[in-house]
Amino acid sequence: MKVILVRHAETEWNLSRIIQGHSDSPITPRGMRETSALLAALLESAYPIACIYSSPLGRARQMGLSLAKGLHCPLIIEPSLKEQAFGRFEGLASAQLTRSHPDDVNALFMHDANYCPPEGETLAQATQRIMDFFCHLQIANQHQTVCVVSHGQVSQGVLAQLKEGVIDNFSRYAQPNASYSVLEWVDGKCTNLQWGMATHLMKLAR
Q1: Is 111 a catalytic residue?
Q2: Catalytic residue among 78, 83, 90, 121
Q3: Full DSSP string of 167-183
Q4: Range from 52-61, 126-135, 160-169, 182-191 carrying the lowest mean pLDDT
């Protein structure tokens, strides 16, 4: 099984550096162009994508719909692909939170996958639900290529887990909006991983 793991396009809160989590904000005009550029890159690469799976959050679902239409394949909404829940930190500006809770911000976004924001979930928990989804996906799609549209923070956890076997260094795997990674499983084991693929975004104007 091959998985094309995609981060959603830029949103207004991404642009303003506001923490999203399970909250949502609209896609920006640049985000629309990012989606078109990603679709063009996937079509050029000629991946035989059989299905799109998307987080139900609006910013991911919108990209999922665009990719499904452009690639002429079905879209399935999958709740386990949501972003990590940031609880009471959602809707706060990153700069504001850094000033008021610097240790919490460093733990949450840089150092500690087991840190739980107030009324949220840990990155370890969020990563595990996606890893469980991948396990079920392999059973149903052993010889297929699928596209999975998810979110930035939780994708970092997944990539760290698959690349290193542990989640500790998740912050190494930060990637831009509308970038993608290619994951390949053989006999239940991830045998190949290319991450942070974003050359299709290089010519986009701000």
Answers
A1: no
A2: 83
A3: STTGGGG---TT-EEEE
A4: 182-191
Q: Domain 1-199 is classified in which CATH homologous superfamily?
A: Phosphoglycerate mutase-like (3.40.50.1240)
* Total residues found in the chain within this entry: 206
Contact 42, 4 (CB under 8 A): yes
Catalytic position from the list 8, 34, 78, 121: 8
Residue ranges of the annotated binding site are 7-14, 59
- Tokens standing for residue 78: 């999958």
The string of pLDDT tens digits covering residues 32-90 is 999 999 999 999 999 999 999 999 999 999 999 999 999 999 999 999 999 999 999 99
Q: What residue type is assigned to position 80 of the chain?
A: S
| Known binding-site residue numbers for substrate | 7-14, 59
Residue 74, H or E segment: none
Q: Tell me, yes or no, if 164 is annotated catalytic.
A: no
Instruction: Give the list of residues 6+ apart from residue 44 with CB closer than 8 angstroms, or none.
Output: none
Q: How far lies 31's CA from each of 36, 38, 116, in Å?
A: 9, 10, 29
H helices of 101-142, where? 102-106, 123-140
Place of tokens 């079509």: 43
Report pTM: 0.96
21 phi, psi to nearest 5 deg = 65, -125
